[in-house]
Structure formats: C-alpha cells, structure tokens
Amino acid sequence: xxxxxxxxxxxxxxxxxxxxxxxxxxxxxxxxxxxxxxxxxxxxxxxxxxxxxxxxxxxxxxxxxxxxxxxxxxxxxxxxxxxxxxxxxxxxxxxxxxxxxxxxxxxxxxxxxxxxxxxxxxxxxxxxxxxxxxxxxxxxxxxxxxxxxxxxxxxxxxxxxxxxxxxxxxxxxxxxxxxxxxxxxxxxxxxxxxxxxxxxxxxxxxxxxxxxxxxxxxxxxxxxxxxxxxxxxxxxxxxxxxxxxxxxxxxxxxxxxxxxxxxxxxxxxxxxxxxxxxxxxxxxxxxxxxxxxxxxxxxxxxxxxxxxxxxxxxxxxxxxxxxxxxxxxxxxxxxxxxxxxxxxxxxxxxxxxxxxxxxxxxxxxxxxxxxxxxxxxxxxxxxxxxxxxxxxxxxxxxxxxxxxxxxxxxxxxxxxxxxxxxxxxxxxxxxxxxxxxxxxxxxxxxxxxxxxxxxxxxxxxxxxxxxxxxxxxxxxxxxxxxxxxxxxxxxxxxxxxxxxxxxxxxxxxxxxxxxxxxxxxxxxxxxxxxxxxxxxxxxxxxxxxxxxxxxxxxxxxxxxxxxxxxxxxxxxxxxxxxxxxxxxxxxxxxxxxxxxxxxxxxxxxxxxxxxxxxxxxxxxxxxxxxxxxxxxxxxxxxxxxxxxxxxxxxxxxxxxxxxxxxxxxxxxxxxxxxxxxxxxxxxxxxxxxxxxxxxxxxxxxxxxxxxxxxxxxxxxxxxxxxxxxxxxxxxxxxxxxxxxxxxxxxxxxxxxxxxxxxxxxxxxxxxxxxxxxxxxxxxxxxxxxxxxxxxxxxxxxxxxxxxxxxxxxxxxxxxxxxxxxxxxxxxxxxxxxxxxxxxxxxxxxxxxxxxxxxxxxxxxxxxxxxxxxxxxx
RNA sequence: GGGCGCUUAGCGCAGCUGGUUUAGAGCAUCUGCCCUACAAGCAGAGGGUCGGCGGUUCGAAUCCGUCAGCGCCCACCA
Length: 873
Hints:
single chain; alpha/beta; four-stranded antiparallel beta sheet; 27 helices; 31 strands; RNA-binding
C-alpha cells in the first residue's frame, strides 16, 4: 500500500460495484421507507457548487438512513426549465442564423429536444462522480410522459374546481424573453436614475402644473393627472384640464387620496397601461388606457413619432425634446427600485395582457398551519417567518408563459368564441360539440392555446408525480414513499418551489410532501461573493474531485456548512478533506501491518481498549443526536476528532507494539472492530474510502457493502464516564511531561523520571501507559520532590520531573508564580460567590456544591504551588 | 418603509431554557521534530472578556432595553 491515498481508481471502482449490485435501487417492502426527491436541476445545466453542497447533504442523509435499516430511496431527475432552456436554444439557433420567428412551433421544439438530448443528463453524470446514491432507475424528467400527463391532468382538475381562471391583468412582462412572468420571477434592484420634472400646461391658462416622474417616455400613454383632494398646494388644479407636453393631448385632472402629497410636486401623471397603480386608478375612474409599447420594449405606433424606438433610448430622446421645448422644469438624481427579470436580467415592463392564473388563497390556507405548528419542520426555523409572511400576502399566480418549451396549456378555442379545457384534443372536441350542439365541429376547428405553463407548475407536483400519484392516486408506490422524509434545498426557492409543493401535496395527497426541509446556505467565494458564471469565481466541481477526491471535496463542503449559514468556499477546505482521507488510509496501513501473537493482553492495552470502547459509544451517541437535529457539520467534526485525536493520536499510540514486535491477538481484534465502527460512522460523509477500507479490513463476501452495515449498535449502552474521566487526566499528565521536554529541548529518546506528589494513586495499567507515551525510566510516589525538578499540575495533583542539571530556577519560579496568581484569582472568584449569602440561599444546591468543590480543588493546587515555590527558593 | 437574522480568538463557527474549574473546538499562526503508519505528518504553545451602553439578577456571552454595523426577505410612493 502506498503511503499516500489515491482516490481516483478506488472511487470509480466502488461506484461501479454499487451500481452493479443495484444497491441504490429501492422497491416498496416491509421496512420503514426513507425518501428524498432531488431538487431537479436544469436538464441542460452543469453542476454548480451549490448543487455539490446540496447533493452531498442529501447523500449523507440517505446513506445514514440506509445504514439505519430503512428502505432508502433517493429519486433523481431533471427539470425542463422552460424559460432558461428556451433562451439557450434561441441563442444557439441565432448563432446559426436562425430566428425563432422563422420556425414553426413543431420545428422549434424539435431543435429544443435535440438540445435536451445532447446536453441533458450531464449534470446527473456529475452527481455519480460525487458518489450520489440515487436510484437511477427512477430518474424522472418534468417533461417525460408521466410528468407531462400529470401536469395536464392537474391543470384540468384545477380549472374544473374553479381555481384556474383566464383574464386580462397587469402582469410582469419580460421584453427580452417576450413572456409574462410570475411575481416571484421579478427581482427588484436599486437603480440610479433621474427624477424628471415635466411641465403640463393648464388648458386655457398660462400656467403649468409640474409632474415628477422617473419615466418621461410614458407621457404618450398619459390619460389623466391626479392630485390629492386634501392637498392645498395643488388645490388650484381641481376641475381643470392639462395638456400632455409634446403630445398635446388634453387630459383631465382627477382627485384621489392615493397620491402622496409629500412626494415630488404632489401631481401624479396617470398612465394606466404601464404602471400597476395607475392601472388601478384607471379602473376606478374609468380612464382610457393607451398601450405605447410593443412586446419587445420598443415604442408602438401609439407613441407617434417615437414609434419603434427602444424604451430607454426614447427616454433620453424625449428628455432632450422636452428640454428643447422648454417643458422640462428640472431633473434630479434619484434612486428607486426597478424590477428585473430573474432570467434575462432586463427591466420588467408592467403590461396589461390576457393570461392564466391560479387562485392562491385556497392553497395558502392549507399550507400554512402544518409549518406553523411544526408538523412540517424547517431547518433553520427562521424561515418559518418568511414562509408565513408570503402566504399571508399571497397573490394569484400567473401560470401562463408565452413560450413553446414546456407543457402546452390544454385549452382549445372555439370558432364562435369561448374555450374548452380538456386533457386532450379528442376530449376537447367532444366537450365542444356538447357545449355548442354543433355536430359539424372537427378537430381542425379548434385552436389550442399557444402558451405553455410556468416551469414551477410541473415542479410543484414533483414529490407526487415521481411516484405517479397524480395519474394513479393510491398506487402502491405513492402509498409507500409519500410523504417523503427530507427535502434539501436552497432558501432562494422557498416560494417558487417549497411552498407550492406543500400546497400541491395537500391538494392531491391530502398530506405534506415532506416532513423536514433542510435549507442549505449559499456557496460563496472567499470574498463572500455569490458564485456565478459571470464572475467566473466558481471552481469546476469535477476538477476539484479530480484533485482532492470526491470524499475530500464532500468533507470540505460539509466542514463549514451548518444549515442556513452561507459557506465561504475555499479550496483549502477540500485540502483538509483530502488530508483526512490520507490520515485514515495510514491508520489502516499501520494496523494492518501488525503481526499478531497469542499472548495475553497487557494491562496498558486493556486500559486502552476499554477506554476507546467508551469513547466510541459516547461519540456515536453524540453523532446520533446531531443527525436528529440536522447538524451535519458538527456530526462530521465529532467523528473527525474521534478518528484523528482519540483513535490515531491516543489510542493507537497507546497500543502500538514496539518496532518489529507483534501485538496480542485480543487487542488486535478489538482494534479491527473499532476501525470497523469508525468507518461505519464515517461512511455517509466519505462513502468511497470507507467502503475500500471496510472491504479490506477482513474477508468480505461478494455483494457485501458498508452501505448496509448498521450503525445502531455503535451508540448502544452507557459509556463508562469514570474511565473516560481518568484517561483525560492521564492525557494531561502525558501532555505535562511532553511540555517539559519541549521547553527544555530534551530528546524523546532520553528517558525521564516522574514523581507523583500527594495522595494520587495510579493503576499499574496507567503507569504502563505513562511509561510508554512519555518514555519514563520510573514513576515514584513521593512526599517531597527532588530539588530542581520541573513541575506541572494535572487534575489536583502535582507532578515533578527531576531535571537538576537542566532546570533554570528563575524561569521555573516565574512559571510557578504565574500559575499561583491565576489559581488565587480563580479562588477569589469562587470565594466571592460562596461568601455571598444570597448566592448560597438562592442557587440550586448542586450549584453551590460545585462551587465548594472548585474551592477545594483550587486550595489544594495553591498549597502544592506554594510548596514548590518554597522548595525552589 | 416593514419583517427576520447576525455581531464570541487572525478566519469561518459552536455555546439550548442564565451558574459544570475566571469562554470552546476546527483552520490558520508560533516553537521543536523526517522518531520506519502518515511532513497531506508528529509533539508542544500562544491568542478572545463574548459589537457599544444601560438594566434585571446573588450571578449574564446567555434574559430585557437601547445605539451602531452587517446580511437576508418582503413592499405599487410616481
């Protein structure tokens, strides 16, 4: 075996082994199910660091559940990502000189499918490198047959229930993607622009009303000016009419308390077609609505001479023109919030258009209580608030998109107007004939709606549709796997996805879709910046795996990723992971290199094996508890310390035979057993190296795997706390001696004598350990230590190492003085408490008792120190 | 503008219902070591008074108030 662990071949070998034996595959059986559905990544995407973290966590949970004897099922899959994928395909076609508008819907979809087949699933291949134990036989896709039919069925069902409606509303329009968006797809950003003060001439007078606006280009759509009826400053405009600058159109002055008297001049221009609030005013006062924009954000014919100009170019131009015409009072720098499209990153245009909507109050009412009552738990809990706030202020969901890549809305329009919603064309025709009584109707007379559905309208069914629970309610699989156990995802999609899955879960399964949601943090770079393609600060995960091994990368990610906290990713974390792998590897080499002999177990080895058994039990219980609380980083850290500090640095050093000597069989067997348990504990975090070493620890049969090696027995029983305590004190003594060596530069080879003061007694086994780890020539229990000995305190006992020729009295004295001061200060603190009547009266008796113990301990130490100082002086 | 959260060693964090040896691990730092498992290592050491102020209490990093800084979410002031 090489002194350095080389993960590459080993990882590939075991992943194939797991696949060959179908270890990841799950079928319903009598065991308790443990289910996770993957947050489906974009089908044509590649793996970003966020997904690495996310999927590492899922794999840890799944593997742990498997080891706990549950029927673990992790279902993978991908999302068609309607708008994102369509944009990519449009781009690709553009590079070939093909415009989307030149293609028929069918032709375009053919290109999109080609693209999907070409790039689809790359991301899932990457997950295999990471070691993800997904049931690949179950891989789903939001646009495959089962999922598509489920979406259509749900749409029809909700329409029949009256929860889906079609109507003209003000929606968020993306002028680049040329589609409506939901409110959640709009991101507000601060925009540094200008506030323009425009002069509106009062009709028939030589006076002007000044209006402040950030969007002067919309004046062509103005159909009123609005003032607050209570505003004295603008009262003079009541009942008047004003002239829209440049345009020349005369519009009325209306009054509404909506207008903020403090803002700008108190006059508001009203453009019902291009502002949500203005739209409401327009409805209220029955104002005409002039749409001056084309779908792509250029000015329309209605804008007169500015027609076909881009909206932002137009803003500049119009500002100049107003200036020239003397109609611009002034401009000011101004910062406001502007909504941007999440996908295309262009400013959203509020636009009046015909869309499909889902009523949300019904869903919000179902989805709120289980979370608030902690039946469905969020980790961390703080997201409960966010969730609550959203549900309590929810608006209807715009679910139609003017895109082709997605699930086409199953609505067919009739020649004479009106429409039919049905699961397919034949059914639509049947219903159409029934509705109209016109038996001459044919399929060709029906025109299907050209829009498709929001991507999230399929994702929200994911935990159900993956088990075909929409098409076949109550089937064996959905009954077994649903509700799923845990969902692991980012808090950024709590509204898009998490909340809506909860809604769909209650609507279609009458039950929550998952019992726990683990919100991961966002992966950032060292400087705290979000990792993104445009910044180029995201490392290539496959490259990291190549360099550090999947186990190393997994550990690196987990080391600093408590739920909900962002992680500042740094390659050095992976390095730490890799180093740990190497440590484990070398421990294995050491242990497997020993020869055994049929001799009795020496006392020191007995102490070591008893102690480590207790340590294992203690830590395993801790790990179990941390898993229950989803504190996975801490669980990993606990195992890391157990392995590196306790097992490698202490236990193995204690039992290690002298060079070339064999080890007694009993100790050896026990050690292999401990190694086995350590590997099992560690397996969920580092699946590959643990499998490799577990397989080599002893003879294994073909088809065996650490994946199914139970962990339940490790935390079994009560750890011997007395033994744990006494070994901790032993470690202190060893550290004390080593410290003396270090400070005085005494070579490890030079044997030292240890003197134990006072009443302390050491077991023979303890003395043997001390001799072994400190290289002692002898241990003496003495009343008076040798003159010029170096001393230290462990527990409440003073120890001395006689060193006459080495010791520097002054230095020694200084050290003792400092320690004495510290102890005296400590004692003062304790005495202050104990001297306080009210403390003794009010504090719980065991607290008071503990203070007395502290006092006692401190006093013994002080006595010992004083004695030493006196002896030196 | 509203809501939530954070502020503990150089760094990123843990410290739950106040009291468990005058604050804990990890990484980094410093010192000494190639001693045949591991220099991707071993041994040892240093480092914070818990953002500021005020309060409650016998006792506060831990509870309350307030100020400051940071972050996130939500929101139609043009």
